[in-house]
Each structure stands twice: as structure tokens, then as C-alpha cells.
Amino acid sequence: MASHRRPKQPSRTRVTVLTTAAAAAVALSANAANAAPSEKPSMDEVKAKVDKLYEQTEQASEKLNGAKEKQTRLEKEISTLQDNVARGQGDLNDLRDSLGLAAAAQYRTGSIDPSVQLFLSADPDDYLDKASTMDQLSGQQVETLKKVTEKQRALAQQRSEATEKLKDLADTRSELAEKKKEVQGKLTEARKLLNSMTAAQKAAIAAEDARASRASQRAALDDGGGGSAVTGRAGSAYAAAQSMIGRPYSYGATGTATFDCSGLTSWAYAQVGVHIPRTSQEQANAGTRIYSQSGLQVGDLVIFYGDHHHVGFYAGNGQVLHAPRTGTVVRYESINNMPFQFGVRI
Predict the structure, then answer these.
(1) pLDDT (tens digit, 9 = 90+) per residue, 242-281?
(2) Which tens digit of pLDDT belongs to each residue from 194-230?
């Protein structure tokens, strides 16, 4: 007799798992069908990223310049201190020798002056006070002993200063290495982005850049009242900068083959016998500030960005003459291409 058992039903748990898996598969298929193919960033997006990287490079570069200047200054100060210590030690030795000769003469005669006890005293100042009070020393001996103690104190102070400056120098050299690494890293990143662009995109960017540069040059040279006449040392410095138009930008460079922004301005002023600080941050404090663009004169320095990491010359008619960034040359540009902070009249 045939069996009429009911077929076994799948458990509720198994049905739920199968249903969930099927739904997930359907969802993945739908997402795959609807997903847009990955797209490369546009030329404008790449250019914006590269420009930002170059701005960050210049920020790090000006800090690098500042660290280099500090290193040079510290090395000079340390050298001066070390020379002073060497000379002071020589003077101290001469003073001690003169006292030693006097002591030797006294020893030969059988009477050692109390001043010789100075060399056995743990506290020369205390001994001097007592000896002077007791009137045990001659005026010349007291004066010599005072010179010895003063020279000892001066040498101790100079050695302490030199030690502190040597520590500062070591920190500055570490900062130099760090900032140099940062600059090089930003430049490498920017080059990688540029290399990801097609030849046509690179050509389009270069052409646009050249058009903007030519337009700014025409505006600056045809100064329709936008700036006052170029006069005095500021005018001469500006003229020196004009003679460098077309020279490539290079971070840390002060000319004349290449320049960075503050390298150009400091070099130009040096040509007319005026020393201004090396970095844009220091140049921001090198003269009288002019906060209104309408008050600028041709030849004034122009400071950009909140941290003052870029500087150029005001060229009149709303234009600046500067060394912009890596990949460019010394040229004219609109003052509005960057966030203007103030002008500086040297």
C-alpha cells in the first residue's frame, strides 16, 4: 500500500536565509547596473588641486627661508661668542700669570702675600671682601684680583650664551630638514597630478596662463592712473625687478637665474643699497603699512594671504610684479588673483 506521507516543508529559518540572499543578489545586480563608470577629475579640478599644492609649497618654502636665515644668524653669533671666550680666556690667563709671578717673587723672599690665597679659596668674591676689609692687599693687587673675578664671570656668561645658542641651532637645523622634506613632498605630489593630465590639457592650461600674463603686462605698462610715478629707491628697486621678468621661479632662490617671491623683492632692493629682510613675513614688518589698494604706489611691496607667505611689487593699475610659484616665471598678474592683505612702503 503506497505511503501518503506529506512532503517535508523547509524550515522557516532556511526560507528566511534564502530569501535574504536572493534579495541581496538582486540589489547588487541593480547597483552594478546603475553604477556610473569611474571618471577622471576634470582639468579644472586637477588645476585647482595643483594650485593649492603650490600655495602650500610656498608656505613651507617661506618658513624654510626663515629657518635658513635664523641658522646663518645663529652661526655668526656663536662664532662671535666663541671668539670672545677665547680672547677672554687669554686675558684671564695673563692676569693669573701676573699674579703668579708676584707670588713667586714673594715666595723667594720668604713672605707670601695673602693675595696668593685667592687661588686656594673656593669663593674668590668672599675672599676679596675680607681681604679688602682687612686692608691686606695693595691697591694694584686688589684691582688685579677684581679683574680676574670679573673676567671669570663674563666668561661663564658667554659660555652659557654660546651653549644655549648651540641648542637653538640644533633645533633650527632639525626644522630646516623638516621643512625641506615638506616642500619636496608637496612638489612631488603636484608633479604627479600634472603628469596625470593629457598633453592637450597641459597645453590648454599653459595657453590660458600665457594669455593672463600678457593681459596683466599690458595693464601694468599702460598705467592709466592706477599708480603714482615710480620715484626714489622704491622706484629703482621696482625697475630692477622689471629687469628680471621671465626668470623662472624656484623655491629658496634669490637670483639672478631663478627667484622665489621674497627672493625677488629682497634682491631688487639690494640693487639700490637697501637691505630688507629675506622672508615675506619679515618684509611685512619692514616699513609703513598701506591697507587700502587705492593708496598703493608703484614700487610698494604687496603682502598676500593671512600668514603673509607671499609678496610682490605693486605695478600700478591693479597689477603686481612678482615670482608667483613653481612652474611660472617672474611676471605681472592682477592683484586680485590672491587675497590682498596690505602694502608696505619701505
Answers:
(1) 999 999 999 999 989 999 999 999 999 999 999 999 999 9
(2) 888 888 888 887 787 777 777 767 766 665 434 445 6
Q: Is 310 tagged catalytic?
A: yes
Out of 4, 275, 308, 322, the active site residue is 322
Burial of 61 (0-12, 13-18, 19+ CB in 10 A): buried
Q: Is 309 a catalytic residue?
A: no
Q: Give the global pTM.
A: 0.65
The single-letter code of the amino acid at 201 is Q
Report the percent of the chain where pLDDT is more than 90. Answer: 38
Burial 200-230 (b: 16+ CB within 10 A, else e): ebeeebeeeeeeebeebbebbeebeebbbeb
Q: How far apart are CA 113 and CA 103, in angstroms?
A: 7
SS3 of residue 40 by DSSP: coil
- Is residue 308 part of the annotated active site? The answer reads no
Query: Are the C-beta atoms of residues 264 and 323 closer than 8 Å to each other?
Result: yes
